[in-house]
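task queued by scheduler; priority normal; single chain, no ligands, no partner chains; default sampling; output format set to structure tokens
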Amino acid sequence: MSPSKSKTAPVDNAQAVPASFEEAVAELEALVNTMDSQNLGLDQLLTDYKRGAYLVKYCRDRLSQVRKEVTEIEQTLNKPADEGAQ
């Protein structure tokens, strides 16, 4: 019996999580510039569009998460100090 060759599934680059918010924004800007300035084929445009849509959602979700955390911190700061905590 011969060993079977295992093929790894191709990585879906459209769903690759960026390392940071700033990286996502930079990649999104690069995608927009590429799509605007180059004569890309339909399949490449679709691939880039999917990636761009994922990055926009990632950025929106991250901003929402940060807003929530900032609100929670502000609420903590605005609470009156406990009387026994002197």
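post-processing summary
- The chain is about 65% helix and 0% strand.
- The radius of gyration is 22 Å.
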